[in-house]
Amino acid sequence: MIGVVGLGRMGSGIAATLLRKKFKVMAYDIDPARVTVLANEGAAAGTNIPQVCAKCDTILLSLPNSQVAVDVMEHDVLPAARPGTTVIDMGTTLVRETQRLHALMQAREVNLIDAPVSGGTGGAAKGELYIFVGCNKAAAEREWKLLQALGGGRLTYCGESGCGQITKAVNQLAMGLVDAAYI
């Protein structure tokens, strides 16, 4: 089962895409109403992060900002994740924090994949996100089918931990420069 933590505009689209593509999903958010919406679409309703960690081998995080992602990973996911679990951070998180958390999780035999996305809520809902994957190659290969469900052919393996975050930042900068050139 795939745990999806964070059911805002992006996370709810990610969870709905996974359900549509026949993945078993456990959904969790601090707002129970968001969980109910996904449960009505076929997801298992998570009541807290330790429960999601206990039931899911892969946990996708779609959280609103770097600080929230770091806090949730460090204080909620890391203490509860079982060895062999893979945590996929789909948000934009500070590179140094990503690398620090990767080391902490690795010491507990938990994989951390930084996989920030571009493509907005429409891309999340359609399974057409651009995903920049940073982690060891073996972890990326184990989760590639799942990531393909969310991005189709729009996946880029960028290198070790933190490289997904760096590549997304470069991508966003390049897009901004192109936009500025057309003004």
What is the assembly state of the chains in this entry? single chain
Q: Unreliable runs, pLDDT <50, ≥5 residues? A: none
How large a portion of the residues is in β-strands, by DSSP E? 15-25%
The ordered H/E elements are EHEHEHEHEHEEHEHEH
- Spatial ordering of strands, largest sheet: 3-2-1-4-5-6
How much helicity do the residues have?
A: 40-55%
The global form is globular
In short:
The chain is α/β, with parallel strands linked by helices and 183 residues long. Helices cover 53% and strands 19% of the residues.
Layout of helices and strands:
Elements: E1 2-5, H1 9-20, E2 25-28, H2 32-40, E3 44-45, H3 49-55, E4 58-61, H4 66-80, E5 86-89, H5 95-107, E6 111-114, E7 117-118, H6 120-126, E8 130-134, H7 137-151, E9 155-159, H8 163-181
Parallel strand pairs: 1-2, 1-4, 2-3, 4-5, 5-6, 8-9
Antiparallel strand pairs: 7-8
Helix pairs in contact: 1-6, 3-4, 4-5
Describe this structure in words.
The protein starts with a strand and ends with a helix. With 183 residues, it is an alpha/beta fold. Helix 1 runs parallel beside helix 6. The chain has a six-stranded parallel β-sheet with strand order 3-2-1-4-5-6, with helices on both faces. A three-stranded mixed β-sheet has the order 7-8-9. It has helices at 9-20, 32-40, 49-55, 66-80, 95-107, 120-126, 137-151, 163-181; strands at 2-5, 25-28, 44-45, 58-61, 86-89, 111-114, 117-118, 130-134, 155-159.
